[in-house]
Design a protein that fits this description.
The structure is a homodimer of 196-residue chains. With 196 residues, the first copy, chain A, is an alpha/beta fold. The first copy, chain A, contains seven helices and ten strands.
Chain lengths: 196, 196
DNA sequence: GCATGTGAAGGAATTCACAGCA
DNA sequence: TGCTGTGAATTCCTTCACATGC
């Protein structure tokens, strides 16, 4: 569904009022019947013979994904990757915002990056009262688990981690891991004449 | 399999000579029988009653993933994310290396980042003869498709893209997309009392 | 005894084909 | 006619249970 949201937002921004499953499928590199099947689980979203109204589709998917209210995230690790994330403008389209940043390095504390002031990681517990419910982990992999534990203590219940380690958390906390090196390592398999 | 490689490398670096499917599963947050089933497709990798020899396991998986030889990649887009990638040291464990970087911005050309000199994007075609077969796309999303086409022309057959767009390529080119904002947007769904 | 390898069962996701409505 | 919604068929992936070998 997040992918469908992305595609619908994009086509809507190109001025489409209605889109067919065919059009969305072409745009995303998928098949129409898969999209229709997935949409069908959430009741009647489209008009037969016409397609899906982009406006209502966006708002329905946002509601399903609980993106109908703005969400705030905290970032830990203001290194190169962390800074890039703080200055990245792509979160806004989903109503997401990084509103706090922490680092272990005293030299970075106080710095403003992407409009956010870097705080010392010792104060991580203070995020508890700030209406933040997601954490972004951009720390060295050795400290990833430790910082994740601190985020758990601070009441965070969703983590996006860039560390190539499995983060152990109670089941109530959702962890999504992006392992960039591992993703790049998947490419060579497809390089030469592979079947399929 | 890339995930198994990561886990095995990690446990090996901790001094493990043999690992059981149970141990690897615990480490990665998976189940032992899934790992055994997946390994079984590639012939007898383990010793019954003992486990898997980490050394041979690593080399077998590397061979399967075609990571048994070092692979070279080109990066396009030396902005914040691109620079972070150039300076990231995590690719080496898989024998991957970024050996060239390109940017559209003349001011960046000539700069050294992470030991790589930034070249002007107009010269992208020159990668053809340099033993490079993967491209990393860290450009603004509007230019992603255009640059991907240029990479195709330059003989690249695998692309890791950070642009939140579907990249259209001939079937012989493998494209892996990392959409950071979309991944973060998946979290809110899990935030409150969801079943499962 | 211990841990792998694997046929069989079970479940989930995808694809198909078409009925139903604008 | 055009495009959605959906049961049925299919394919794929996961889980189980246990025979096999160190």
């Amino acid at each position: 569904m997040p992918l469908y949201l992305r595609g619908t937002l994009e086509l809507a921004s190109q001025g489409a009022d209605f889109i067919s499953s065919q059009r969305l499928a072409d745009h995303l590199g998928l098949t129409p019947w898969l999209i229709r099947k997935d949409f069908s689980y959430f009741g009647d979203l489209g008009k037969r013979g016409v397609g899906y109204d982009t406006r209502t589709l966006v708002s329905r998917i946002k509601k399903i994904l609980r993106l109908n209210v703005d969400r705030r995230a905290v970032l830990v690790g203001a290194g190169r990757l962390g800074s890039a994330l703080l200055e990245y403008g792509g979160f806004g389209r989903y109503g997401l915002q990084i509103v706090a940043a922490f680092d272990r390095d005293g030299a970075k504390v106080g710095e403003m990056i992407g409009g956010v002031r870097v705080e010392h990681v010792n104060g991580l517990a203070t995020v508890a009262g700030r209406g933040i419910d997601m954490g972004i982990l951009a720390v060295p992999e050795e400290s990833a688990q430790e910082i994740a534990d601190a985020l758990l203590m601070a009441g965070i219940r969703g983590i996006l981690s860039f560390s190539p380690r499995h983060i152990a958390m109670p089941k109530r906390v959702k962890v999504i891991t992006i392992d960039i090196a591992m993703d790049l390592a998947r490419l060579p398999y497809y390089l030469s004449g592979n079947r399929r």
